[in-house]
Amino acid sequence: MQDNGTTNKKLKSLKTLIIGEPRNPFDTDIFHKVSLIALFAWVGLGSDAMSSASYGPEEAYLALGDNIYLAIFVALSIILTIFVISTSYSQIIELFPTGGGGYLVASKLLSPSLGMLSGCALLIDYVLTIAISISSGVDAMLSFLPASWQVFKLGFAFFVIMTIIVLNLRGIKESVLFLIPIFALFIIAHVTLILYALYFHAANVPTVMSNTATNVHTIVSGAGLSALLFIILHSYSMGAGTYTGIEAVSNAVPVMREPRVKTAKRTMHLMAISLAFMAAGLMLTYIFYHVSPESGKTLNAILFENITSSWGPLGHYFVIATLVSEAGLLFVAAQTGFLDGPRVLANMALDRWVPTRFATLSDRLVTQNGILIMGISALIVVFLTQGSVKLLIVLYSIAVFITFILSQAGMVRHWWKVKTKVKDWKKKLIINGTGLFMTIMILMSVIAVKFSEGGWVTLLIIGAFAGVVILIRRHYDNTSELIKELNAKAINSAEGMNMIKNDVPDKANMQDKTAVLLVNGFNGLGMQALSTIFKLFGGMYKNFVFIQIGVIDAGVFKGVEEIKELQTEICKDVDEYVKLISSHGYYAEGFTAVGTDVVEEITKLAPEILKKFPNAVFFGGQIVFPNDSRLTRWLHNYTVFASQRKLYADGIPFVVLPIKV
């Protein structure tokens, strides 16, 4: 017993050292402490979009082949697309002020099933965000190191992913603060190089425009207007990775500093402006310097070397610093997957599409299970693809645009339905309608071009994941029906509990046998457990104590009011049990607590209860499913068994009462 206690203390100390001290959800400033101002949100969420400038414009430019001057049209299209999508997502932020990512938007504005599909695509997108960002960052780091270092690619990628996992387990703000210097270096270095290139080549603009007109005339006269449009559209769709990350802000509104909507919209504006400047600026400078691909180097590396070729040794070091910042930002971009992926998982868990454990919070008030599953999934993807950025980009673009389309379609439907209630509905409809058209065109183009190159894998994974999710939801629905039947049978059957009617005692005797029952709401499960105590032990127990723990999960941890409502609700439930038992002449008390871990809160209450009722025995009702399996054990937390193990280790008797449904 002592050895176990010592071991547990050591493990707890190690956890505190790595993850940090537990946070108090009742701290009046806690929501202020864990929230992000627009600047920090731009770093934590905008890094995904900004990092796409490291590969999106390059893919679009390379798709043009020898028709490099058509990059001007592609750059203009990219700018337009960025602002259309960001503006349409700003409208989503206004409509969903507590957070409205692709999952919630599609679920509420289209249907739960389409919301589930959007959620599945979004989760895969965030896993791929982590995988592609880390893989690209490692490639950038290794590009200026000896070739022999390539053998360490996977090991380095794994190390970076695990480091970011630990940072996120510590908390959202901690993970973002750590990344600010990297983000700042990237912005300063890239903006400096792009502005320098544009300034010193401003005199070449007339020549570039003339060459562009000649390029257009040559294609149209030779192959026709349709050929010109096809080349531009193909290049435009190949740069689809540029727009990934724009939706991240609408997903993460709950972590924004109050006023959340204003902060989120400001973050969206910062992201759109910076991304448009970066993507279009790179495309134009590619033209000015006639950048062409070289083996073992990215286009950005080649471009930056050309820009700084006249700078001497300073130029060489500046390029290295820029590429290091680019690699660093790609690592930072993985943070979007860790910020928003667990949040989507939590929302789907609250709706019972995925195991409910993904909605629980750790003592650091983060969705620990979601962070771990996102990180582990990314590790698996990096291993299976061997960190191939080319393959990951194909998988990446398709997933995110499925979510884009469903979100825009939901908004279009919403504005049409409320057209008689909203004054400027036409303007809003046009914005989301344009976004819907653009995203459909891009997705169709990407699937058509990349399907045989691996695009089918993404569609297969999304379909398979959706199939698993449907099975999980079906199980929870069946369980819900069984519990409803249990409630119907037990909730109104107090007379059938075989209670021995006692006279109301003048004074309770705390030395009498006391039954301490864990409950989770005034429901059939609690009533059935209470009935079983009387059936098994008759009138042995004279005192009854009811414990209920309110769980602060992702659905509750939105504000102070939600936590207060939870406290009121659990107190009301426990009072119902106390009134029922008291009416039969038994002494009864209720104990309640609110926290992120039920077992931990029960462990805290147990000594207090035993001090007052020394002859107490703890009880907990556990549902026994008709077809128990590993799946049912995985989908349910089995808190009663965990509580029994914990109290047993402390020498406290605990009886599990099987409740068959």
TrEMBL record:
UniProtKB keywords: Membrane, Transmembrane, Transmembrane helix
TM region(s), chain numbering: 30-47, 67-85, 114-135, 147-169, 176-199, 219-246, 267-289, 314-334, 365-385, 391-409, 429-449, 455-472
A GO cellular-component term linked to this record: membrane
Membrane topology note: Multi-pass membrane protein
Subcellular location, principal: membrane
Keyword tRNA processing applies: no
A GO term, aspect molecular function: transmembrane transporter activity
Record Pfam families: AA_permease_2
Subcellular location: Membrane
Family matches, as InterPro entries: AA/rel_permease1, APC_K+_Transporter
Record protein name field: Amino acid transporter
Protein species of origin: Methanosarcina spelaei
